[in-house]
Specification:
Elements (H helix, E strand, L loop, with lengths): L9 E12 L2 E14 L4 E5 L6 H9 L6 E6 L2 E2 L15 E4 L3 H4 L6 H13 L7 H14 L16 H13 L5 E5 L7 H18 L2 E5 L3 H7 L2 E6 L2 E7 H6 L4 H8 L39 H5 L5 E2 L5 E2 L13 H6 L8
Parallel strand pairs: 3-8, 3-9, 6-7, 7-8
Antiparallel strand pairs: 1-2, 1-4, 4-5, 9-10, 10-12, 11-12
Bound molecules: adenosine-5'-triphosphate.
The site of adenosine-5'-triphosphate has 14 residues, from β1, β2 and α1.
Organism: Conexibacter woesei (strain DSM 14684 / CCUG 47730 / CIP 108061 / JCM 11494 / NBRC 100937 / ID131577)
Protein name: Oligopeptide/dipeptide ABC transporter, ATPase subunit
Keywords: ATP-binding, Nucleotide-binding, Transport
Length: 344
Amino acid sequence: MSAVATAPALEIVDLEVVYERRDRDPVRAVAGVSLTVQRGQILGLVGESGCGKSTLAKAAVGLEKPRAGRIVFDGRELSPLTRRARPLEDTRLQMVFQNPFSSLNPRRKIGAQLQEALSMAWKGSRAGGEGSLRDRATALLEQVGLPASAAERYAHQFSGGQRQRIAIARALAADPTVIVLDEPLSSLDASAQAQIANLLVRLSRELDLALVLISHDLAIVQHIADEVAVMYLGKLVETVGSGELWELPAHPYTEALIGAIPKPDGERNLPVALAGEVPDPSAPPSGCRFHPRCPYAMDRCRTEEPPALAIGSGRTVSCWLHDGAAEPRRPAELAAAGRGAAGA
Ligand SMILES: Nc1ncnc2c1ncn2[C@@H]1O[C@H](COP(=O)(O)OP(=O)(O)OP(=O)(O)O)[C@@H](O)[C@H]1O
């Protein structure tokens, strides 16, 4: 992990996002989430489909209005304005979407689209002119591993991986501090995924960029994230340094997610199976939201919601198994020691 800056690049505090629906209960898609990302750091945000990852990402960059909570970007609290009305500095918080094809203009050359992104970010504040915009666009293409000739081509002339490189180059045009990437690899084949993952690590290190990488693919996150936040039904259940997480998952949900990653020999990592579907976020279970699916659930889990408990250095887990636990341990070990149903 690289050096930690004084103010976090991005800090999200108790964020809540609710979708109101006509004639139906509102969906509390993000139900009080706090997390922090430092410059030069990659934070992986993982969880099953529907747990609120995209909503959290959109709220973080101002595309969705939070009902409550704060977003502090580079030490300044972001105002709840639309993106276009935000001050210029706030464009340094960028987002890259899953499908780069839909976010690129099919009728404009890539070079022109990059120049447009550069001039919007510069807004005449820097000495420029067409020549320097063109040079800078070429430099952006090189930064993401594409030749200068890519500027003269259109989006459909590139592969999926190349298009994602272009989308990243366009985000870089704003000279960002933070980029939130929502499933940037999931539409790509395995080899393009590996290349883009390597590119993200390089850019984060070279440009001291904070990256929030949203993915349901734990195997990829395992390779490139420094920190991982695990989300379940609108809440974070565990936040931890990446290496530690894979060695010693502390939340039963994390244990199950990691257990589901196939090993190269076809075996699973751990014998914990995740039963059932993610419940409806408009009517979440009482107590711990994970308790109906948890193999270690105790009586308390059905009625009392666990807070984020600090275990180890900088690590938090929202699980009653760890209440009073002196050090991180596997859920199965804690249950066997008498804390959960399995040991009761
Ligand atoms: N515009 C909306 N109106 C109502 N409900 C919504 C809206 N957008 C998302 N939701 C609901 O909010 C919850 C969280 O959705 P979100 O897309 O943030 O999850 P996700 O973890 O990103 O899932 P995926 O990986 O499938 O995109 C889901 O129950 C979803 O159905």
